[in-house]
Specification:
alpha+beta; Alpha-Beta Plaits; Hypothetical protein af1432; 54% helix
Length: 465
């Protein structure tokens, strides 16, 4: 039987592994951010070369843009060819219009754009024109809701119901033609459209077929059945899965029918990636150049650490989301102020987050967490203790000296400190009084923190101990 010491050792190994993994992710984020900036420059040039002026009333401009990750839904309503054979064809045509009208309403609910309707087929897309990381899940969820609505209509019908429904979904790059100040999608092109329509046309009635690409994005949210592979012209075989239900643990009453708060929170954790990208971009552009410590790197470090410590402390996914949000904003206020940056950070969070669905209650929690990092820290609950430990995590890290020197250079430019020797003495005093509040941080950082004190004393000539 594993002893308590063995369990602690296993926990420390797990967290250490997570630290290395997240450091790798941070490096990847930096590389991707650099590539993203390059792509944006290319897109700007591409836009200039592809502006088309459509003549007519209002003379609107159309622009062609490429989106690396969009999700296309091809919806095939079967039975249209039977209408001319029926006595009351108008009634069935009206029924078709009603189905499409409600499908459109569901699509708008999930921020999807309808591209076109041709008879009994409809084409929708998510992730265009506003890019987001959640579009595969949102499009599949919309398709699932559409299918549920369709089945209800069929079950409630008191007359012959001639319609059947199948869907095909694929996630991949698309080229979109945008008009109306870049807000309206008028046309969608690319292989992703062809793949989605191919899946939809061969899927069995009542089924939602998704490609392997889409499956990889949604498999943690939905139960899926492998349906096999189908040949596709000019390319390899296409793997297809059928969506069967929402995962029970993410649905109300474990029914698999309606997403619950756990589903929403899990989706919001993915959506956080988009929020983080927007905030970090604003910080990169707005932070003064002489912030050698309170910069984007420090923010990424704290966002990473609150998640690691939070996981080890056993908090919920929703609490991790709020912690990561507060960590993301906790130093953003340096854009406008150095000494009162926490208060400004709260203002920025309250300005920014409502557009991303944060409630007033959640904004209050984020504010409390940001203010908990104000020096001297005095956390009153577990979440505040976690963010305070994450904010000063560097005190017990192996890179303490270079990080400390960057903070010294920053504070020196702010005329808040004198010589490096004076700074090291201040650090000895500060670290000697500092405490980590969570058990996780104490186990990971306390021993190394004490070593930093000895190193600083050696630099200043003070006696150790």
């Amino acid at each position: 039987m594993a002893t308590k010491k063995d369990k602690i050792g296993e926990l420390i190994k797990r967290i250490a592994g997570l630290v290395k993994h997240n450091q790798k992710l941070n490096r990847q984020i930096q590389v991707l951010s650099s590539r993203n900036r390059e792509l944006l420059k290319q897109i700007e040039g591409y836009e200039k070369d592809n502006v088309k002026v459509k003549k007519g009333e209002g003379a609107t401009k159309s622009k062609m843009l490429k989106f690396q990750m969009a999700t296309v839904l091809y919806l095939d309503i079967r039975g249209f060819s039977n209408i001319p054979k029926l006595d009351d064809s108008r009634k069935f045509a009206d029924e078709l219009d009603s189905l499409i009208f409600n499908f459109d309403a569901i699509a708008r609910k999930y921020k999807m754009h309808k591209i076109k309707t041709i008879g009994d087929t409809c084409l929708y897309t998510g992730g265009v024109p506003v890019k987001n990381s959640t579009n595969p899940v949102e499009v599949v969820l919309a398709a699932y809701e559409m299918m549920q609505y369709f089945r209800e209509r069929r079950a409630e019908s008191h007359s012959p119901f001639i319609w059947d429904l199948s869907m095909g979904i694929h996630t991949g790059p698309v080229t979109a033609v945008l008009s109306g100040n870049m807000k309206k999608v008028t046309e969608l092109k690319g292989d992703s459209v062809n793949v989605a329509s191919r899946i939809g046309s061969v899927s069995f009635p009542g089924k939602i077929g998704v490609s392997a690409n889409t499956y990889e994005f949604v498999k943690e949210f939905f139960l899926c059945d492998f349906n096999g592979k189908m040949p596709v012209k000019y390319t390899d075989e296409l793997t297809v899965y059928y969506i069967t239900a929402i995962r029970p643990e993410l649905s109300e009453g474990n029914s698999g029918a309606v997403p619950d708060v756990n589903f929403t929170t899990k989706l919001r954790l993915i959506y956080f990636t988009d929020i983080q990208e927007a905030v970090l971009d604003r910080m990169e552009k707005g932070l003064p150049d002489n912030l050698y410590y309170h910069n984007v790197k420090h923010t990424i470090d704290v966002v990473t650490e609150v998640e690691l410590i939070g996981l080890a402390e056993g908090i919920s996914d929703r609490e991790i989301l709020l912690l990561k949000t507060a960590a993301l904003f906790h130093d953003a206020g340096h854009i406008r102020s150095y000494d009162c940056h926490e208060e400004v950070s709260v203002e920025l969070a309250r300005e920014f987050l409502p557009a991303y669905g944060y409630s007033s209650e959640e904004l209050d929690v984020v504010e409390e967490l940001i203010m908990a990092t104000k020096m001297p820290p005095s956390p009153v609950n577990l979440l505040e203790k976690i963010i305070c430990d994450a904010d000063l995590d560097y005190l017990g890290r192996s890179d303490f000296i270079p990080v400390s020197n960057s903070l010294f250079n920053e504070m020196k430019e702010q005329n808040k400190v004198g010589s490096l020797e004076e700074w090291n003495k201040l650090q000895i005093k500060f670290i000697s009084k500092h405490q980590y509040y969570t058990e996780t941080a104490r186990k990971l950082r306390e021993v190394n923190k004490q070593k930093q004190i000895e190193r600083l004393k050696a630099l200043t000539g003070e006696s150790p101990g």
